[in-house]
Write a structure and sequence with these properties.
This protein is mainly alpha-helical. Helix content is 68%, strand content 5%. Helix 11 (251-258) packs across helix 12. The longest helix is centred in the N-terminal third of the chain and has 31 residues, at 20-50. It is a multi-pass membrane protein.
Amino acid sequence: MQIEDVSMTGATTPAPLRNAAFCSIWSSAQVANLGWLVQTVAIGWQMVTITASDLMVALVQASTTLPAFILSIVAGAIADTHSRRSVMIIGLSLIALASVALAVAAAFGFLSPWLILALGFMAGCGFALNDPAWHASVGDILDKRDIPAAVTLMSIGYNMTRSVGSALGGVILASLGSLAAFLFSACSNLAPLAAVLRNKWHARPSPLPAERISTAIRDGIRFTALFSDIRATIMRATLFGLAAIAILALLPLVARDRLAGGPIAYGVLFAGFGMGACVAGLNNRLLRKVIPQEWLMAIASIACAVCCISLAFTSSVPLATLALAIGGAGWVITWTGFDVWVQLASPRWVVGRTLSIYYAFLSGGMAAGSWIWGNVAQSYSLASSLELAAAALLLVAASGFVLQVHLGAEGDQQGSVFPAPSVALDLKPQSGPIAARTEYSIDESDLDSFFDHMRTRRYALARAGARDWTLQRNLRKPSHWTETFRTPAWMSFRRLHHRLSLSDQDVSQLLAALHLSEKPAETELVIERTTDARRTRSHPVPRVLRP
């Protein structure tokens, strides 16, 4: 696999904590994670005790991940076109409100399986809004070289609290009851909300006005669909999420049916998973130095498969805890790798949308997986469900050698500086369509290189918003080539050039070097008009077309 190991070249893991805003929000997030994990243990065990349906138990995981599948793409577009801090505040408020409602329902004895799922869905909506905005804000708060360390820190932090929070949840549940666990979670979810309200940061301002949400969504989907590395990462993340979620979705059933344990045993199992994830996260950078990235991801998927097989056959709590530690290590290594790939491959103008599409698909995979493995467990057996999940994880491990990610192939994703071109007409933002035409004179011996560069340029322009791209050859002068493309409006054309990265600009220079004429290739811009267009001050109808 040809991949630049960002964890080797980036900053050390603690480096981002020297930034006051990041440190404050990250620290408060760990407090909220602790409360969320205590609540997760309480909800999982509460569901086991109030319903005999294996499917309903497995759907607890689906209830919090399904909203991300539904809302993440819209949330990512909002994060790229509005204040990411404001989006985080709204999302964190929803999470806090859901936790408070859960505690109130428990206090008054209103808890039911469907209410638990509904409040989980509400919290999931908050996560769907907050997570893309928070992850996209990391690049605004920190330098680019600190992003891999920041992603690792976020993963380590969550899994450190998983190891403590899960055990703590079991103790609180066994000694004080579910209401105490829900109250603890409700209070802890106020910490990140307070931190975001207290800290302010600013994204690099765009010289262009904000896009409409519908346009932003369409452009984000277009970019993601045309970027092969991000597309492959999303496909692999979806498959991994679908298979690996069996570990967490079926864990309450493992604790109750396979191990005959209570809430403390369930908390210990969760803690084992978190401890393995924490150890792997702390050693993530070292592992990426000594093991090729693709092999490391394959080993991580195999580790999760080993965890599933072990849980299917063991009846020992210590052995199950050890298996979950192995699964937790594979879990965090895989998700950290996927997160870093998407973060570093995405330009700043679209990073919120690519992250949200990534979260949407992996959340959809997790939600579908929770339903599938719960159904298999209910219709056949818990062991059969875990065995099938293990087989699926082995296929996921093999898929990495088919859906490879060549991070770094696209070069530097930093945006370029593009001054507005000088035009004689008074164009409005909505004026259009705009057509661009560039003529080249290319020697016959350079055609292979010309085609290679044009192929790269075509995809770069398409990702940035160009439409109807063509390359034409002059029949009378075969050395003359014309590149054309269109944008729907003048503002779309300006956005396109602001979105092109420095590596995209390098392709333009390579094409210019192949141009034979001493006069550099120039791009002509025209606005397309129909013959029945009305005359306006900015677009007068030519005299020959007037009646």
